[in-house]
Write a structure and sequence with these properties.
Layout lengths: L2 H18 L6 E7 L6 H15 L4 E2 L10 H6 L6 H6 L2 E10 L2 E9 L3
Parallel strand pairs: 1-2, 1-3
Antiparallel strand pairs: 3-4
Helix pairs in contact: 1-2
């Protein structure tokens, strides 16, 4: 399989992954588990793909007070804020993404209820 086809296949897997962990019409908080600090570029790829797939629903990775303006900040500020503030921002689930090899895998989905 050629590189573009392999890349598309990976993105299709990621797209299905993000959609399976989200409530209809709601956004998601991604909690990165086991992503090495030196993998900021890869973490950013996962995050921006989620943003692309979920648009216009929000994809959060940090407390709203944390400015994420560099790839290293994706992991540094990756702590789950309180559920009420997530719900207020349109988030319907918290997804624990674990890095297995070079593939993100959902380990847990916590559905946020009103």
């Amino acid at each position: 399989m050629r590189l573009p086809a392999r890349l598309n296949q990976r993105y299709e897997q990621w797209d299905a992954l993000f959609r399976s962990g989200t409530a209809p019409g709601r956004g998601v908080f991604l909690k990165f588990i086991g992503f090495p600090k030196g993998a900021g570029g890869f973490t950013a790829s996962v995050y921006f793909r989620a943003v692309y797939v979920m648009y216009p629903r929000p994809v959060l990775v940090a407390d709203p007070g944390v400015v994420v303006n560099e790839t290293t900040r994706l992991l540094e500020g990756n702590s789950v804020p309180d559920e009420r503030s997530l719900r207020d921002r349109g988030v319907g689930s918290i997804v624990d993404l674990e890095l297995v090899g070079m593939q993100p895998v959902i380990r847990r989905v916590k559905w946020l209820t009103e």
